Amino acid sequence: MYKNYSIAETTRVEREKIVNDALALSTLDAAEPTTQTKELIDCYIMGKMEISDILKKTIERYKVV
Hints:
Helicase, Ruva Protein, domain 3, 65 residues, single chain, mainly alpha
């Protein structure tokens, strides 16, 4: 089953749950996300930036030139 996590298809409460669940899983055996990443995540929760855009920005930040 495919779930749509786009801003148009979710409420703020749903986005908060999505983020909280993802952070809980990702930090089980890894470091906490950086402040910059947390700021991007907040943009998703507030409905200002899609997950795909956050991924692109995060990858760009760590890309070796």
